[in-house]
Amino acid sequence: xxxxxxxxxxxxxxxxxxxxxxxxxxxxxxxxxxxxxxxxxxxxxxxxxxxxxxxxxxxxxxxxxxxxxxxxxxxxxxxxxxxxxxxxxxxxxxxxxxxxxxxxxxxxxxxxxxxxxxxxxxxxxxxxxxxxxxxxxxxxxxxxxxxxxxxxxxxxxxxxxxxxxxxxxxxxxxxxxxxxxxxxxxxxxxxxxxxxxxxxxxxxxxxxxxxxxxxxxxxxxxxxxxxxxxxxxxxxx
Length: 237
Description:
By secondary structure, the chain is of the alpha/beta class. 38% of the residues lie in helices and 15% in strands.
């Protein structure tokens, strides 16, 4: 499996606090069947540079090699919606045209559609992070449906499907799956103890809703196609 959203880089945001915790998270991921993780630290200021993140990434990759933990770590970012598009090209997922975009948890900006359209014009393929945890989408899922198209995709959180974020987010995640609005399931892991890097339980839950094969696509086929730079993914789950 491939986890496209994980805060595994040490000491750069509210994810892994140090290298030891990053290694423990990688061990958990490996035990769960995750072979590749895209490290996606929060990118919420222009002062966060690709160079500084690359140093952390290289350090983690080296440590995992030393510990013989067979988890591939790629680099990306979870980018705040308000950053200027000129600042985003270095924070795409593994230098593809796909970029993980975070909107506020409490609302969806009125100009969200304009933001996404502008990103598309710049050549990006936006992936909306954890929409099932957004207050506006919980209230009215059409808010999300109005934003999605072949170049705007959605990623739900594994923990939402298992109830970690409450019954409302769980119900919304399941509804979005049934409606075929989901292109990826990712862990959005932040630590070794809380919000851990695991996907298998959520995939099993998703399989009961959209079928096992379709659920697996959201953590295998679609992430692979995204990393390969495909201009179109398979049909959403």
